[in-house]
Design brief:
Length: about 850
């Protein structure tokens, strides 16, 4: 329902209520009909079902069949060892698997626990779960909005909606209806469940509760979104299917050959087939993968990135597109005054965070604020006409209390050397006219050192221009040139800055109060202030590193188009294209959207649904997508992305639970480090597979040779094969998990999505090494048997030859293409020497 497009009277009429609210009896009736105002808990998968799902793998099926055959033949030691391998792999998967419903739980906790409802004309505090559509609620500063509401009456109301819309500044609300096709962030006559009132009061009508609220819809989206399997696991699955097919075909051929061409008993043939299956399956691979990924997790934790799901570490290495929220991710989510225009010219204000420190530059040169009287006049007026506070705690940390825009002006004054404690001695406040959206200004009356009094004024430029009759110049007051100020303001507004105009007016000493009717129109314009949520310096460098690595970076934000383009230009994102808006995305079907997401890099005024659609469109184009964000509006897209990355400090709990990785320092640059780590891990996993498979091939060759040559005894038994695969091979392969990254790892493009984990070259290498090690091991077996020693001694010689071949091949596997038998190849990894 388009509640934002209807007048307050129309909304009240349609919901059959009044400004005095519902009666208790009617509220109870509607509660029974509509249900409580809470998000229902999604049905969780049972632990038993999750455990059983770990056995759903073709290679595991083959091992289970092998264990069954050995049990049927009474080979209980073989059965126990094979079964142990199967159970260990299942337990590893069970422990590491994440639960999606945790994100839904965190979104449920965002709903306000209490609400002030107006029932029968009287205010009463109730449990927010008891709210129903048609209830009238009272909102004031500090309240969390308990449901989606249509505002009926507002008094200086401003609501922080960054978690829902991505807009960095608090949104000033009105009770007047807006256009029917207004996007979510432009529906300023609505307030949404879970957002925070930062200023003012309001009487509002509940129009949606529970899952019908915007945050409820997001919760349902998170619950419904299917998490895609990671590229590595997809490749491992394909590899497992191919390997399983080869094993089954060779085993069937081996059984048929033994049945028709060799004088083997059925029992002996079964043992040969079991031996072949056990030999061909790299049982140690799951353990090696887990350890390699776990080492990556540990490494990333040291870099302030907390990985919640193991495969995410490697998946970052295969990312082709990073989709990032703007507010709080690429930017600081701290409104900051960066530009000041006075009669002197344009000043650029430096500094980061909330500390009142930073260089002031004029025409590229650093200047002291004392040298710029116009700047100091602007800063003083902005400080005095202000309700925010800048203070320092016992640890020396600076903090701002108050509305973000006012906080930015207080910080501007501090960087200009002006603080409330000192200025209020000379300019004590006497009265104020608070900001209201209808007036678009705030005014305060103060004492003045010149025995008169002064009114300071700040607000929207056009409104302030209309209240000014003069401007401050080098020689004092002079005639106001509005067109020049408009032109100068448009230059920086076009770069995404939000503008505020600052003015003052001297009044007589006997003026003790001011009101909207007595503020006056004879103000002197002091200057303009340009405010922006600035990009993180480290994020700019991280974007550059990602682009150098062949990764596209796309910005998806709920903020305005001009702001998004401005930040994009600063970060070299989408500098050559126009930004798309949510309305453009609504008009595009899925096929058209796939074209747009490849052509455009900036998407503004987007909703959670838009972010999710963009991620899905990129994935349909075979892109591996990382989504980065901090608000609950990012949660569905984070959940769907191949790698969801949440901000740890300013990110909501819902976002963190939906993500695969959490940045503990909110530093976008950590993603570049994670991509480097992911590429290294993938290389090391490839090296591990290239190292393990020749051992399996050599073992299979020895079993096949026993059948072809009609040997009385197997050169190697199933238990010995499992020992080599799970103990010696795993121990040696672990050394490859500690390999440092190869040179140029961040200068190569992302690997193609369809690239197999075992290439044609790798297959030839595996076959060649398997034949070499297998033939040498068989030669050792035959040589010992020929000397008259027992079969047990001969098997011991064969196994030791096999393991010796592994030892030498380990160093050959340390590099994918470079020669290994160099000083660096032999000594560059101390863990390999220890192994």
């Amino acid at each position: 329902m388009n509640w934002h497009h209807l007048s307050t009277d129309e909304v009240l009429s349609q919901l059959e209520t009044t400004r005095k609210g519902l009666s208790d009896e009617e509220a109870r009736r509607r509660l029974a009909e509509q249900g409580p105002n809470r998000l229902e808990e999604a049905q969780k998968e049972s632990p038993l079902r999750r455990l059983l799902r770990q056995f759903h793998d073709v290679l595991i099926y083959i091992l289970i069949v092998a264990a069954g055959l050995t049990a049927y033949l009474g080979e209980w030691v073989d059965t126990a060892v094979i079964a142990a391998v199967v159970v260990i792999n299942a337990v590893i998967g069970f422990v590491q698997e994440g639960k999606a419903e945790e994100a839904m739980e965190m979104i449920r906790k965002m709903l306000s626990p209490e609400a002030v409802a107006i029932r029968g004309g009287k205010r009463k505090k109730i449990n927010a779960e008891e709210l129903v559509v048609g209830d009238v609620v009272w909102l004031e500063s500090g309240d969390r909005v308990p449901a989606d509401v249509r505002l009926l009456e507002v008094n200086e109301l401003a609501v922080e909606e960054a978690i829902l819309t991505g807009e960095s500044d608090a949104v000033v609300k009105t009770a007047e209806p807006v256009a029917e096709d207004a996007l979510l962030g432009d529906r300023i006559c609505l307030a949404f469940s879970g957002t925070m009132v930062v200023r003012g009061t309001a009487r509002a009508l509940v129009v949606a509760t529970a899952t019908r609220t915007e945050v409820g819809k997001i919760g349902e989206m998170v619950a419904e979104v299917q998490k895609l399997q990671t590229p590595l696991l997809r490749k491992i699955d394909r590899f497992g299917l191919w390997l399983s097919a080869i094993i089954l075909v060779v085993a069937a051929a081996l059984f048929a050959f033994g049945w028709f061409a060799r004088p083997y008993e059925v029992t002996d043939l079964f043992m040969l087939v079991v031996s072949l299956a056990v030999a061909a399956i790299p049982e140690g691979l799951p353990a090696i993968m887990t350890v390699t990924l776990a080492l990556g997790v540990r490494s990333m934790a040291g870099k302030k990135a907390i990985v919640r799901r193991l495969p995410a570490v490697e998946t970052l290495g295969s990312v082709t597109v990073i989709c990032s929220d703007k507010t709080g991710t690429l930017t600081r989510n701290e409104m900051t005054a960066r530009k000041v225009i006075t009669y002197e010219g344009l000043f650029e204000i430096g500094g980061e965070g909330t500390a009142p420190e930073g260089e002031i530059r004029y025409d590229g040169q650093v200047v002291e604020s004392e040298q710029a009287e116009g700047l100091r006049r602007v800063a003083r007026a902005a400080l005095m006409c202000n309700d925010a506070e800048l203070s320092q705690n016992d640890d020396g940390q600076w903090k701002i209390e108050g509305e973000p825009t006012e906080g930015a002006l207080v910080l501007l004054a501090g960087r200009a050397g002006l603080f409330r404690e000192g200025e209020e001695e000379a300019y004590g406040r006497l009265d104020a006219v608070p900001f209201e959206s209808e007036r678009r200004y705030m005014a305060t009356l103060h004492e003045s050192p010149d025995q008169r009094r002064v009114v300071f004024l700040k607000g929207a430029p056009e409104r302030i221009y209309s209240m000014c009759s003069a401007q401050l110049g080098a020689d004092g007051e002079e005639a106001l040139d509005v067109e020049t100020w408009r032109h100068r303001g448009e230059e920086i507004a076009g770069k995404g800055y939000r503008l505020l105009a600052i003015a003052e007016r001297r009044v007589d000493a006997d003026v003790d109060t001011i009101s909207p009717s007595t503020v006056g129109d004879d103000f002197v314009l002091l200057g303009l202030v340009g405010l922006m949520d600035p990009p993180r310096e480290e994020a700019i460098e991280a974007v550059k590193q990602a682009q150098e690595a062949g990764i596209k970076v796309k910005m998806i934000t709920g903020d305005h188009r001009s702001t998004a383009r401005s930040i994009g230009a600063m970060m070299n994102i989408g500098t050559e294209t126009e930004a798309l808006t949510g309305r453009d995305l609504d008009e595009a079907d899925d096929a058209k959207l796939e074209e747009l997401v490849e052509e455009y890099d900036i998407f503004a005024r987007t909703s959670p649904e838009h972010k999710l659609r963009i991620v899905q469109a990129l994935q349909r184009k075979k892109q591996v997508v990382s989504m980065t964000g901090d608000g609950v509006n990012d949660a569905p897209a984070l959940r769907r992305a191949d790698v969801g990355v949440a901000m740890g400090i300013k990110g909501t709990e819902a976002t963190k639970q939906a993500a695969d990785m959490v940045l503990a320092d909110d530093n976008f640059a950590t993603i570049a480090a994670a991509i480097h780590e992911g590429r290294k891990i993938y290389d090391n996993l490839k090296k591990t597979i290239l190292f393990l498979l020749p051992t399996n091939g050599a073992e299979a060759l020895m079993v096949i040779a026993a059948l072809v040559l009609t040997l009385e005894h197997l050169p190697i038994t199933p238990v010995q094969i499992l020992w080599v695969n799970m103990i010696t091979a795993v121990t040696l392969a672990l050394a490859l998990a500690f390999e440092p990254a190869e040179s140029g790892v961040m200068r190569r493009p992302p690997r193609p999505a369809k690239e197999p984990i075992v290439s044609a070259y790798s297959i030839l290498r595996i076959i060649g090494v398997a034949i070499l090690i297998g033939v040498l091991s068989l030669a050792a077996f035959f040589d010992v048997r020929a000397s008259g020693m027992s079969v047990e001694v001969a098997r011991t010689a064969a196994i030791n030859t096999l393991v010796a071949g592994q030892l030498f091949y380990l160093f050959s596997s340390r590099f994918l293409t470079d020669p290994s038998y160099t000083r660096r190849g032999l000594l560059g990894n101390p863990v390999a020497l220890m192994a």
